[in-house]
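User: Okay, second chain of the day. Same drill as before: sequence in, structure tokens out.
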Amino acid sequence: MMNTTIDENLKECMEACLRCLKECNFCYNACLQEQDIDMMRECIRLDRECAEICALAASAISRNSPFMKEICLLCAQICEACGQECAKHEHHEHCKRCAEICFQCAEACKKMAS
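Assistant: Same drill. Structure tokens below.
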């Protein structure tokens, strides 16, 4: 049986992943509406990568996957990459918000996997 600290870390990580999934999908859609879509290309790509790994990580946590820690460490890497890219577009509110949520998710994933 898991102790409450581990349970809390798992719960926080899963919630952070679900928040990040939602925010990345929102940012992805908003980026597609931008005038200069070429400038947003890498942001759009990383939003998709990040949303996908966040969905996988949340699913892995919910089913207590034996690969949960490895998936969450990869999730943290992708969240950081997405956050760094989104942070470059500080004049877009959706990118600023996405970067913040990505960095929070990366921290939650690293904490859970440690």
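The two ends are 18 Å apart (CA to CA).

User: Thanks, on to the next one.
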